[in-house]
Design brief:
2 helices, signal, Porin, mainly beta, DUF2490, 263 residues
């Protein structure tokens, strides 16, 4: 039975990797064929933390700097906070707030920043019964967005689904301290509501990368993300080629757990 599960999980990872590669190729072909499409090269620096406070509760914090030409030319600054409720080992519910500041064309001096406020609700499912760990993330967002040339905020609804798979690059069954691993993910964004401008698909993010588990609480990741997004004009597509660098810090403050993580 275990061999069947392991084989199925491995096939799932291979299929996702192939779909990401073919999707990136198709997106590049689309941008070449569409006159209004253009490509953008970015670097995203990210820090994530899920601090476990008790058996049921925890805190999520997240910060990102998305830059176009360098640290002095940001595309977007991002901060997210939330409260985690651990229903079970495989199920986590989260609700919280996010704030972003976007800069057109990565220039924060001429035009100024465009703020956005979000509330969000999230369901996270994790399965690690095989060497390939899968994570399903369902997120609903309520967004108040300020567009260029408009001082008023527009209300938007958005739904996101992400599938993320990780696989240890050694003979370990699970990712443990000192373990390198490979990761693959794909996230679909759709919008709905009276202000959706008649569109449904907003963007898709396909990612391939590698990571290293430093200790029980800390890991680092780096990889390539292909982002296909549809602009407000409905006729403009942006293919983003993104180098992402991430730090994950997930301390466990339950009795006895923090000492184990530090060791």
């Amino acid at each position: 039975m275990k061999s069947i599960v392991h084989s199925t999980a491995a096939k799932l990872l291979v299929l996702l990797l192939l779909s990401l590669a073919s999707g990136a190729q198709a997106q590049t072909q689309t941008t070449t064929a569409t006159p209004t499409a253009y490509q953008r090269f970015n670097t995203w620096l990210m820090v994530f933390s899920d601090a476990r406070l008790s058996n049921k509760w925890g805190i999520h914090t997240e910060g990102q700097l998305r830059q176009v030409k360098g640290p002095n030319s940001p595309q977007q600054k991002f901060l997210r906070v939330g409260a985690n409720y651990y229903v079970a080992n495989i199920l986590v519910l989260t609700g919280g707030y996010a704030n972003t500041m976007s800069y057109p064309d990565g220039n924060d001096s001429d035009v100024g920043g465009l703020p956005e406020h979000r509330s969000y609700q999230q369901v996270l499912l994790r399965f690690d019964s095989s060497r390939v760990m899968s994570q399903h993330r369902y997120r609903l967002e309520q967004r108040w967005v300020q567009h260029l040339g408009d001082k008023k905020f527009t209300y938007l609804n958005r739904f996101r689904y992400q599938l993320r798979l990780t696989l240890p690059l050694n003979h370990e069954r699970k990712i443990a301290p000192g373990t390198p691993y490979v990761l693959a993910s794909n996230e679909l964004f759709v919008v709905f509501g009276r202000n959706d401008a008649g569109k449904f698909f907003e963007q898709n993010r396909a990612c391939l990368g590698v990571g290293y588990q430093v200790n029980r609480a800390t890991s680092i990741e780096a990889g390539y993300m292909n982002q296909m997004s549809q602009q407000e004009t409905m006729s403009s597509l942006v293919a983003g080629h993104i180098l992402h660098l991430g730090l994950n810090f997930n301390p466990d403050f339950r009795k006895g757990k923090l000492t184990m993580a530090n060791n």
